[in-house]
Design a protein that fits this description.
The structure holds two protein chains of two kinds.
Chain A lengths: L16 H11 L3 H21 L5 H17 L7 H23 L1 H4 L5 H22 L2 H10 L5 H14 L4 H25 L1
Chain B lengths: L2 H8 L5 H11 L3 H19 L5 H11 L2 H28 L7 H9 L3 H8 L9 E3 L8 E10 L13 E4 L6 E7 L10 E7 L5 E4 L1 E4 L3 E7 L6 E10 L5 E3 L4 E6 L2 H4 L1
Parallel strand pairs in B: 2-4, 3-11
Antiparallel strand pairs in B: 1-2, 4-8, 5-6, 5-9, 7-8, 9-10, 9-11
């Protein structure tokens, strides 16, 4: 995150400086505090739009704040800036996703058979993943293998409960740990893919 | 915030007002966002494992999948492929106890020449001893597990008892691990809802599916449950509409008296 601006002239790349200034004023009368809240809001919007499945959440967040600033400067009453921005973000997400889906040949041609449509790509990623998997600790590897077993229903629930017990953990904590491990693995794969 | 509600949110199944409220409740809330992340990962796995209902599956493809999320789904698919691969290799390697030439065994059991099968299988005793490390807390304990691999047979074949695999469980054996080779009508890696063990008295015991590879499913039966006699295993799968149906045929095997008792 950027440092809080001290003066309006310190504000970074603000297309429509007036609307930007109005947005900051709506966040707080104190410019330092407004800057902190702006940065925080921007980060939360990026996270929110990332969750929505937007390809470029940062640009989308910029768009949201730009629209919010414009509407505020046009006189729209905004008692709660965060809540107002969430509403705009939902609409921006909808617009962008509609466009992305229309332009994605992968999704347009997908017929529901995942292996048929993406089998080669999965195998390519699998080849990148293998050495990355070996970079995990033995315990982490064992945990992922155990958790991702092809089991179903009650059998799977019981298996995972036993896994949590063996790891001296709870099923809830185990789920979180697995999710974090997956992200760790994805980062390794992405880095390897960039260097390949 | 339940898993079901999060799934409904991700699949865009919540009414508009509820979805708005959901967004407001989770905005900037790190713990809730992590909870969504957890459920999302498991939703993707369920999709890839074909475990979503038809309606959820349709919503996943229509509402959840975006170009950005497709990357995450591909990564998840690669991980599942990697995790499944060692099990498939191990299942193929395990059928070596009857002979040193496993390829001949596959050919033999798949043959329709009853005379050959009966002659070779009659009186055949499979004595298997193996060590198998299982997951255990703190101090891993060692189980002695016998293994058996079976192919499905038509029900009429059980009449005479000929052509059946048999196993003798010595007292030190803790459990019998059976690898069932799934027949052609079961899609490769497709979901199996359950496996049942049936004894001579037609008592049915549900079994836990220990592992599922591309063309095998593995169950583990405590030796204490296997008194000498004839057993069959039957498997059930779910069709495209989500209805359960039994796969035609059964897997037969005989548990024989241990050698010490037969003297």
């Amino acid at each position: 995150m950027t440092d809080s601006p001290r003066n309006l002239s310190d504000l970074p790349e603000a297309p429509g400086r007036e609307s930007f200034a109005r947005l900051l004023s709506a966040l707080s009368p104190d410019l330092d505090e407004a800057g902190r809240r702006y940065n925080s809001l921007h980060a939360k919007l990026i996270e929110f739009l990332n969750r929505k499945g937007i390809s470029d959440p940062k640009s989308a967040a910029d768009e949201v704040l730009d629209r919010a600033g414009r509407r505020i400067s046009e006189g729209a009453p905004v008692p709660n800036v965060n809540g107002y921005c969430i509403g705009i973000a939902r609409n921006v997400a909808r617009e962008i996703l509609r466009k992305e889906r229309r332009e994605s040949s992968a999704l347009l041609t997908y017929n529901g058979d995942f292996n048929e449509s993406f089998g080669e790509e999965v195998e390519r990623i699998n080849q990148l993943l293998k050495p990355c998997f070996e970079q995990l600790t033995p315990e982490e590897q064992k945990l992922l293998r155990g958790y991702c077993q092809p089991l179903q229903g009650r059998v799977r629930a019981e298996h995972r409960r036993q896994l949590a017990e063996e790891m001296k953990s709870t099923p809830k904590a185990l789920r979180i740990r697995i999710t974090r491990l997956r992200h760790k693995l994805w980062e390794l794969v992405r880095k390897r893919s960039k260097n390949a | 915030m339940t898993d079901e509600r999060i799934i409904a949110y991700l699949l865009d199944e919540l009414p508009e007002e509820e979805a708005e409220q959901f967004d407001q409740d989770c905005f900037g809330q790190a713990e809730r966002l992590e909870q969504i992340d957890v459920v999302e990962g498991e939703l993707i796995d369920d999709y890839l494992r074909n475990e979503l209902s038809p309606e959820q599956r349709a919503h996943f493809e229509q509402n959840y999948l975006t170009p950005a999320r497709l990357e995450r789904v591909l990564l998840a698919a690669a991980l599942l492929r990697h995790v499944d691969a060692p099990q498939e290799e191990a299942a193929a390697a395990r059928v070596t106890e009857l002979t040193d030439r496993p390829s001949k065994i596959f050919t033999f059991w798949n043959s329709r020449v009853w005379g050959l099968r009966a002659a070779a299988a009659l009186g055949l005793i499979v004595v298997i001893a193996g060590a198998w490390w299982l997951f255990r807390p703190r101090t891993p304990t060692r189980q002695i597990v016998a293994t058996l691999t079976l192919n499905i047979s038509a029900d009429r074949s059980r009449g005479t008892g000929d052509g059946l695999a048999s196993v003798s469980l010595t007292p030190d054996v803790d459990a019998l691990s059976i690898h069932l080779r799934t027949p052609e009508q079961v899609p490769t890696g497709g979901p199996l809802s359950r496996v049942e063990l049936v004894n001579e008295d037609q008592v049915v015991t549900p079994l836990t599916i220990e592992a599922r590879a591309a063309d095998t499913v593995t169950v583990l039966i405590p030796a204490a449950r296997l008194t000498p006699g004839l057993y069959s295993l039957r498997i059930f799968t779910t069709n495209a509409e989500g209805a359960e149906q039994r796969v035609s045929g059964s897997y037969f095997f005989v548990v024989e008296e241990p050698p010490e008792r037969r003297r």
